[in-house]
Design brief:
Helix content is 56%, strand content 10%. With 127 residues, the protein is mainly alpha-helical.
Length: 127
């Protein structure tokens, strides 16, 4: 490679590097904004039950219509259809909880609040 071609290649690569760095900074800012939005949403959801408890009927209606498209009560069977933004939040409870690697694990292990993983509940750890 002659010196002119080498200098041209260096300039091209430096330009690409600057473009990548710009995109990286933009992505980092977007990720930080997304994290802040998720944290704010989490706090709002935590406060929703308190807000609902002390809300008047009109305010309760407004809160429910923000989260659900339909609420149904028939023969003591309550069902609901969450709006798209809340769908993933409600679907996380539908996944199986298990300690087997080949199945979905949301958190903990299958069977409830206590873990049933023998590696954790070994006789040596349980006094």
């Amino acid at each position: 490679m002659d010196p002119v071609a080498y200098a041209s290649e260096v300039q091209r690569l430096e330009g690409e590097l600057q473009e990548v760095e710009k995109n990286l900074i933009a992505t980092k800012e977007t990720a930080e904004e997304m994290l802040n939005t998720i944290l704010e949403f989490s706090e709002l959801v935590k406060m929703a039950s308190i807000t609902y408890k002390y809300a008047n009927p009109r305010e309760r209606h407004n809160l429910l219509t923000q989260a659900f498209t339909e609420l149904r009560l028939a023969n003591d069977d309550f069902t609901y259809d969450p709006k798209e933004g809340f769908l993933k939040l409600f679907q996380r409870h539908d996944k199986k909880k298990t300690h087997l690697d080949e199945q979905d694990v949301v958190s903990g292990s299958g069977g409830g609040a206590r873990t049933h993983d023998p590696r954790i509940n070994s006789p040596l750890l349980c006094h």
